[in-house]
Specification:
4 strands; 3 helices; alpha+beta; 4-stranded mixed β-sheet; 131 residues; 25% helix; globular
């Protein structure tokens, strides 16, 4: 998917059957009155470029935005309960799979520089907030 798009309220922007299964298997919140979106974006690095996965849930009247960035050897799927609780309390949630984790590309749990994690997160946030 090129770029980040949010769905209409009450619908999932996941025509991809694998994506729908991912959301179901991790019990992510159905966006009954929230918009949902996901993207696989090119990271900003030159020779170390990978496709990074990110997703967001945005309630219609969000009171704030929270970015969920997981720890080492994890992925955003492990935070579905937290995401569900935050969305039900009207917070917009952005979740990122760091490179080499979850649905992001890259060697498993390996990177050449920790700056790559920061650069990937900045690129995803910029893509989402430039809507």
């Amino acid at each position: 998917m090129a770029g980040f798009q949010l769905s209409d309220p009450g619908t999932l922007l996941a025509q991809d059957p694998a994506m729908a299964e991912y959301l179901r298997s991790y019990s992510f919140p159905p966006p009954s009155d929230a918009r949902y979106g996901f993207a696989r974006l090119e990271s900003p690095q030159g020779k170390n470029r990978v496709r990074v996965f990110g997703q967001a849930w945005v309630p219609m009247h969000a009171v704030g935005t929270i970015a969920v960035i997981h720890g080492y050897s994890e992925h955003s799927g492990n935070y579905s309960r937290l995401v569900r609780d935050l969305v039900s309390n009207q917070y917009a949630v952005i979740a990122l799979d760091l490179r080499g984790h979850g649905l992001s590309e890259g060697p498993a749990c390996h990177l050449d520089s920790p700056d790559h994690y920061v650069e990937d997160a900045e690129a995803l946030l910029a893509e989402i907030f430039n809507q």
